[in-house]
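Dear support,

I submitted the protein below through the web form. The confirmation email said the job was done, but the results page showed an empty box. After a refresh the structure appeared. I'm attaching both so you can tell me whether what I see now is the final result or a partial one.
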Amino acid sequence: MDLIELKRKIEKYNPYNEQEEKDKQIMLKYINTFDNILTRENKFAHFTASSWAVNKEKTKVLMVYHNIYRAWTWTGGHSDGEANLLKVAIKELKEETGIKKVIPIKEEIASLEALTVDGHIKKGKYISSHIHLNISYLLEVDEKETLHIKKDENMGVKWVPIEEVKNVSTEEWIKKNIYTKLNEKLIKILKCDNIK
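What the results page shows now:
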């Protein structure tokens, strides 16, 4: 996959709400404006991928306690030049949690969002505030797999009952605008599967 194919996937994506509609426009504008939008060389904005990783029963979400954000969050990371963001989301999930086997619930984009990242220190260097052009995917993993912490990125990994995410996460905007949306999409998929 290349940037042109990623652009096509974003163009075809049907926004869930006004936030996604606006953020989709920004993503497409930045793809047309910057030639380094897939790498951190673009200090203003670059693509990332995240996963809403759930167990087989779709009752729990796998979350990590992120070192920089000091919060329980979804997994994810920078594309670092890779245009196949599903591949990035799976790679990051495996690296951050120790999970070995990952099954996409759907290979299509589950959500998109432009996320602000405050300036911070990483590996001893200051990183200026910037934007993550984030694409999220719904993934399924085995709850019985052994989990591990990736010390340079997180301080904890755990399964959280879906209905408890609102109590565990301390990032109000993300909790309200992303995690709630991903849970609603997951429920919709489950209802559609039960009808079939």
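Response: this is the final, complete result; the empty box was a page-load delay. Helices lie at 3-12, 18-33, 85-97, 165-168, 172-195.
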